Amino acid sequence: MKTSGFSGQTERVRTDPLETPGINASRTGHVLRAWLVAVVPSLLYFFALVAIGADSLRPPAGALGATFAAYSILAAPLLETALMFPLASLLALVIPRQTRVQIVLLAAICALAHRFGGGWQQVIASLWPFLIYSATMTMWLKRSRRDAFVLTALVHALYNATFFGVGALGNFLAAPDG
Questions:
Q1: Which pLDDT tens digit goes with each residue over 127-146?
Q2: Average pLDDT of 23-42?
Q3: What angle do helix axes 145-174 and 76-94 make, rounded to 10 degrees?
Q4: Residue whose C-alpha is closest to residue 60's, from 174, 178, 177
């Protein structure tokens, strides 16, 4: 609690790290912060897997083509955000005032959906970024449905673009000297 100068009234100072501060919070700033919070630990996890031989810097065959790039950087974030959106809205209705629970449930469901495409390692690898996407979706949904969708998709697209770039760099570094 903080006491204001002359009135003797107190105001609550927001300290919740999951809440976006201020009514005019910067959308661009939020996207960039959320992207960094999602991508840095994920890159550390990925490089740890590479270091122990459980993964490779070299991307799978065909993963650097224009079609795959368009899918992973543009289509997948839009599609997955579109699938997250009704679930986030439902969780907000079913368990209101439980923002952290909404975020964790949404992230867990989205990460578990990745089991179909890549096994348990994919679930583990996608849990952290989906926590960040879910936090973005849940927090911005309180302000604007459009902003919740757009900002979540942008964070996801930047994340995927980063890993696409790592794949391209890994392919370059793994290429035989020519």
A1: 999 999 999 999 999 999 99
A2: 88
A3: 140
A4: 174
In terms of residue numbers, what domain contains 134?
A: 27-171
Domain annotation covers residue 4: no
Q: How far apart are CA 165 and CA 178, in angstroms?
A: 21
Beta bridge pairs of residue 2: 11
3-state secondary structure of 117: helix
Helices 115-141 + 145-174 axis angle, to 10: 140
Whether 8 maps to a domain, the answer reads no
Decide: pTM greater than 0.85.
Answer: no
Instruction: Answer whether residue 115 is part of any domain.
Output: yes
Provide the number of structural domains found in the chain: 1
For residue range 83-126, list pLDDT tens digits in order.
Answer: 999 999 999 999 999 999 999 999 999 999 989 878 898 999 99
Q: What's the CA gap between 150 and 132, in Å, rounded?
A: 14
What is the 3 state secondary structure string of 127-178?
A: HHHHHHHHHHHHHHHCCCHHHHHHHHHHHHHHHHHHHHHHHHHHHHHHCCCC
**Is position 6 within any domain?**
no
